[in-house]
Amino acid sequence: MKVPNHIPPTIKLCNTSLGNLPAGVSIPSYDRSALTPGIVHIGLGNFHRAHQAWYLHRLMQQGLAQDWAIMGAGVRPNDEEQRLKLMAQDYMTTLIELSPEGFNAEVVGAMTDYIPVQQDNAPLIAQMALAEVRIVALTVTEGGYYIAPVTKEFDRTHPDMAFDAAHPTSPKTAFGAMVAALRLRRDSGTGPFTGLSCDNLQGNGNMLRQTVVSLARMSDPDLAEWIDTNCTFPNSMVDCIVPATGPKERELVRAIGIDDAVPVTHEKFRQWVIEDDFCAGRPAWDLVGATLTDKVHDFEAMKIRILNGGHQVISGIGELQSMATIADCMANESVATLFTKLAREEIAPFVKAVPGMTPNAYVDLIAQRFSNPHIVDTTRRVAFDGSSRHPGFVIPSIRDGISAGTPIDGLALVSAAWARMCEGTREDGTQIEPNDPFWDDLQRTAKLAQTNPVVWLLQSQYYGDLAKEPRFANAFCKWLQMIWAEGTEVTIDAYLAE
């Protein structure tokens, strides 16, 4: 499609207007009024609507999966605002695929409802307790599973978990709501559902099982045993770059001629790899490109280490150098070379090949995807929640390099850039707004690390005992001192010259 030279009158996205949308916009061919729910999805952000909902929509376009419609859900107060926006357009979303060749637009209609958001989660619990709900899926970010970053154990001391254990019928979290619904299903004889994590956690199904079962055990050990025995939690790997929606994205959908309050842009690439372990059935996602396999770990390790880890490689540096987007970072020759060199030499050696893709070929693919100038993926979004993303995506590669005696200087530089970013100012003097759930603590430590770099590594909740590893600690201190003294550009050049 091409954007018209003049902005046409817009048509409000809703069921009755589908036939009047501009030519070239793909619309649902199925009867949305005949769909019945089968999935509750908690955390209905852009990624879910561009990824999991799209796969289901594609099945529905083939006349399949008509009893697997999605009911959206959320547990945060601002989720209610999203619910009202989607309700006003019959829960449909305009997806705009952006590539160097142009763009395509389609309307996805796989979601048919959004559960009202209440503090006690009563509507959500009631819906998940219904027999027709066979899958409860989540995208709640990798930092949202109440897992200790270093040990990966369930954090039973977290105030949210303590609250849910003390108030099992009126919990505040998604996991507490799942436990409450499963209690109702057990007691009524309805049976279990599958819990499907779609977050960037290695072994995300295992982590979801750990959180749900451990939380249940705090208030009802018998229920915990029933969940652990009867429910399934397949591991999965999800991949598609989906920027946040802002004024530019809303302007683009208006330029096409559609009035959509919550459009989603995305790259021309999707991947979904899932363990085929569903206790109550599943849609035939494999018919529309998803990979069902028992080797999910190899796929997710490649993606988490190289793509998600690669995002952290460049986003902190991008923030410091005032580069607005990931594509801007990759347009900088030094940053792009840093990414490729580091990924090939310090990350890829510990990643297994998967069918059709070697680790080095994947590095090249990710470099190409990151460089797409039409994907306005901000460095701020990618750098968000480094306190979860560095332990999850970067530090495991550091530990592998230490164990194997292979290079880790580039990964030490990435940690140094994160420490420098958390101080809160860019190299041009502008302020970096808080961008982490633990920003105040990180900023306080980052300021101390300016003169005593090792203080940063003593944050054992992220680094464990890495401060005691001389090869890593010495490299980190060297790079952080150089970044403060001479800037990131000189520091990157010094690394590339090694």
TrEMBL record:
Q: Mannitol dehydrogenase N-terminal domain: which residues?
A: 38-286
- Domain of life of the native organism: Bacteria
Query: Keyword annotations for this protein?
Result: Oxidoreductase
Annotated Mannitol dehydrogenase C-terminal domain residues: 295-484
User: Per UniProt, what is one GO molecular function of this protein?
Assistant: oxidoreductase activity, acting on the CH-OH group of donors, NAD or NADP as acceptor
* InterPro entries given in the database record: 6-PGluconate_DH-like_C_sf, 6PGD_dom2, Mannitol_DH, Mannitol_DH/Oxidoreductase, Mannitol_DH_C, Mannitol_DH_N, NAD(P)-bd_dom_sf
A Pfam family in this protein? Mannitol_dh
Protein name as annotated: Mannitol 2-dehydrogenase
Organism for this UniProt entry? Litoreibacter meonggei
